[in-house]
Amino acid sequence: MHIFGDHGSGNCLKVKWTADLLGLPYRWTEIDILKGESRTPDFLAMNPAGQVPTVLFDDGRALGESNAIMRYLARGSRLLPDDPFVQAKIDGWLFWEQNAHEPNVAGARFRMVYLHQPASSVPEAMRVRGDAALDRLEAHFAGADWLVGDGLTIADIALVAYTRVAHEGGFDLGPRPALRGWITRCEKALGIAA
Amino acid sequence: MHIFGDHGSGNCLKVKWTADLLGLPYRWTEIDILKGESRTPDFLAMNPAGQVPTVLFDDGRALGESNAIMRYLARGSRLLPDDPFVQAKIDGWLFWEQNAHEPNVAGARFRMVYLHQPASSVPEAMRVRGDAALDRLEAHFAGADWLVGDGLTIADIALVAYTRVAHEGGFDLGPRPALRGWITRCEKALGIAA
Question: Which of A8, A187, A191, B166 qualifies as a cystine partner to B171, CB 3.0-4.6 A?
Answer without folding.
Answer: B166
